[in-house]
């Protein structure tokens, strides 16, 4: 038996909800986490039709990219599609989980899937986020340093790029005097004690802080554990907005536009004037990504693929780069596949389905 919270936890290990933007509303939106899950349906948007499809297929969990609830609901009377979806979900005991901007902000998330579909190589986050990392500093007796360090590593700390178990260690002498009522690991009550210690420094992402500190305290021999935590200014190269990468070989601009249109099954591609250069470096951002146009330009992208670009924002290409607006749904459609594959890989014997419903509210007259 698999419970909803187990499926949710597997997704949040990949894209923690702590990485969502301030305006967002990721997480479990309806349902209870300790309910046994009968099946999962992945989708971009939650509509009444999607919920009915889930019910027909025996799925009591819908995992979506877009949250059906963004703001507070003062009433639920069915007066609009949001309220109708919530009523349908509750009436049929279907849980709804949303993985939105947290899934946008990891390298292998929404934008990683887009770049995979285009065949980009040497991919990296276009605009990495700062202040994601923390530095933990603690002190342990030399004979216990390995044990303490390994416990903190096991809690998820010590990863830098493609390296794990990263730390810096230096030797020194710690002093302390146990007062009456203490139960010291070493030393005697009322006497100043000197202990040969190892200073351990390890980095970790902020969203792991609770489990990292818990692991430190539970595995440290001292009654009172001394430790410091600092916020780091360094960017986290695996977390942030957009992706930039390279095509396997340069392409003519018209050929690349055709590849974009075919790959994302676009009704149309709005784009700025072509530059006459071959396309090699490509930046992209699923959904509304106009805020990254200047970053894509400064990083030397030949093409920037996104959606929801406003009229005046197209001028920001400055004739040096092609902006291609492929549509919001079109840019994020493969998130359905991404969510499906993440769950199916973790729970290979469990029923995980992809919706058959195209939830795009925009149609094209051609």
From TrEMBL:
Entry GO terms, CC: cytoplasm
Gene3D superfamilies recorded: 3.30.70.120, NIF3 (NGG1p interacting factor 3)-like
Residue positions binding a divalent metal cation: 65-66, 104, 328, 332
Keywords: Metal-binding
Any matching Pfam family: DUF34_NIF3
Listed transmembrane segments: none
Highest taxon in the source lineage: Bacteria
GO MF, one example: metal ion binding
Subunit-structure text: Homohexamer.
Family of this protein: Belongs to the GTP cyclohydrolase I type 2/NIF3 family.
Protein name, as recorded: GTP cyclohydrolase 1 type 2 homolog
């Amino acid at each position: 038996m698999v419970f909803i919270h187990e499926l949710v936890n597997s997704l949040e290990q990949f894209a923690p909800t702590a990485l969502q933007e301030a305006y967002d509303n990721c997480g479990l939106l309806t349902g209870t986490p300790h309910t046994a899950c009968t099946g999962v349906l992945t989708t971009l948007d939650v509509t009444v039709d999607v919920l009915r499809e889930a019910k027909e297929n025996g799925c009591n969990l819908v995992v979506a990219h877009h949250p059906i609830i963004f703001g507070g609901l003062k009433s639920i009377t069915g007066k609009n599609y949001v309220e109708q979806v919530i009523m349908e979900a509750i009436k049929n005991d279907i849980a709804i989980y949303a993985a939105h901007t947290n899934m946008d902000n990891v390298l292998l998330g929404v934008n990683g899937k887009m770049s995979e579909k285009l065949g980009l190589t040497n991919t990296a986050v276009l605009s990495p986020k700062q202040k994601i990392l923390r530095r933990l500093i603690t002190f342990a007796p030399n004979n216990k340093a390995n044990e303490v360090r390994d416990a903190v590593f096991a809690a998820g700390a010590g990863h830098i790029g493609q390296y794990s178990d990263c730390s810096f260690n230096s030797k020194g002498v710690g002093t302390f005097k146990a007062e009456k009522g203490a139960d010291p690991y070493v030393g005697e009550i009322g006497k100043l004690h000197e202990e040969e210690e190892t200073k351990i420094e390890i980095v970790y992402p902020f969203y792991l802080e609770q489990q990292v500190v818990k692991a430190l305290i539970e595995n440290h021999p001292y009654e009172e554990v001394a430790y410091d935590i600092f916020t780091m200014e360094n960017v986290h190269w695996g977390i942030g907005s957009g992706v930039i990468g390279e095509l396997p070989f340069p392409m003519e601009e018209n050929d690349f536009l055709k590849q974009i249109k075919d790959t994302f099954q676009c009704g149309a591609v709005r784009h700025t004037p072509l530059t006459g250069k071959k396309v090699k470096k490509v930046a992209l951002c699923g959904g509304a990504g106009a805020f990254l146009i200047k970053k894509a330009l400064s990083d030397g992208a030949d093409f920037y693929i996104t959606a929801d670009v406003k009229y005046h924002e197209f001028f920001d290409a400055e004739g040096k780069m092609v902006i291609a607006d492929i549509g919001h749904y079109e840019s994020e459609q493969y998130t359905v596949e991404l969510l499906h594959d993440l769950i199916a890989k973790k729970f290979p014997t469990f029923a995980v389905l992809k919706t058959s419903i195209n939830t795009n509210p925009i149609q094209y007259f051609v």
